[in-house]
Specification:
The protein has five helices and five strands. The protein is of the alpha+beta class. Strands 1, 2, 3, 4 and 5 form a five-stranded antiparallel sheet that branches. The longest helix has 21 residues, at about 5-25. The chain starts with a helix and ends with a strand.
């Protein structure tokens, strides 16, 4: 053996001894590796972190002591049209039919949209905004509104309407015929409305008085179609 071979053998023995002292050796008592899919293997403890809040442990139930019945409200199915229509009413039955044709129908969302449409239509009528009215009204109602605007303009009158509040919007009637639905809403609002003549004098209403107004409007649309918009098809002033 030459000098280089002896040097390499000495280095190999030195490295082996160092690795053994660092890594250790198996003794037969080592803990088996963690298996995340085994039910019998406990998860190794994780180092604590400052942003983890442990959940309280569930208390142990004594099997010998009777437990009170669950009062979880989620276990009691709520009436679908709660706050919109009385249970067992004709309105509720019609809403069930609407939801059968359009499962995503939300009656409360409809009433919210009806309130917005009510304010928009009243304001557009006062301003003579025919374009906005045409998008929100059926042809028959639009023709009636447009004729009133034209008549008002021919007299040189202007109208101002301003909502103070819409205090109520209640679903009063619902009818489904085939794929067509009509929902009637009673609006109760507080409104300031005044009509002025050509010279600026007050012809009707008052610029300083808040009036209580009740209107009954009917909206309609064909269900299960791509057009999601309801249009105003009938209006009625109520006491």
């Amino acid at each position: 053996m030459d000098l280089y071979t002896i040097i390499f053998l000495a280095l190999a023995v030195f490295i082996f001894v160092r690795l053994r002292s660092v890594l250790g050796q198996r003794t037969g008592r080592e803990r088996p590796p963690y298996d995340p899919y085994s039910r019998d293997t406990a998860r190794p403890p994780q180092p604590p972190t400052d942003n983890v809040v442990p959940l309280p442990e569930r208390s142990t139930v004594n099997p010998g002591v009777p437990q009170p019945a669950s009062t979880d409200e989620d276990e009691v199915p709520a009436f679908r049209w709660e706050g919109v229509a009385p249970e067992g009413s004709a309105v509720a039955a019609a809403l069930d039919e609407v939801a059968r044709l359009e499962p995503d129908f939300d009656a409360k969302h409809f009433l919210s949209g009806a309130k917005a449409a009510y304010e928009m239509i009243v304001t557009a009528f006062a301003n003579g905004d025919r374009r906005t009215l045409k998008d929100l009204l059926s042809k028959e109602v639009y023709d009636s509104f447009a004729a009133s605007i034209t008549e008002r303009e021919s007299r040189g009158e202007t109208m101002e309407s301003r909502f103070v509040a819409i205090s109520r919007a209640d679903l009063e009637q619902a009818v489904v015929q085939g794929a067509n639905a009509q929902l009637t809403v009673r609006f109760v609002s507080q409104l300031i409305s005044v009509t002025r003549g050509r010279d600026g004098s007050v012809v009707d209403g008052s610029p300083d008085t808040v009036a209580d107004v009740t209107d009954v409007w009917t909206f309609a649309r064909a269900l299960a179609t791509r057009d999601p918009n309801w249009k105003l098809v009938a209006t009625e002033a109520a006491q």
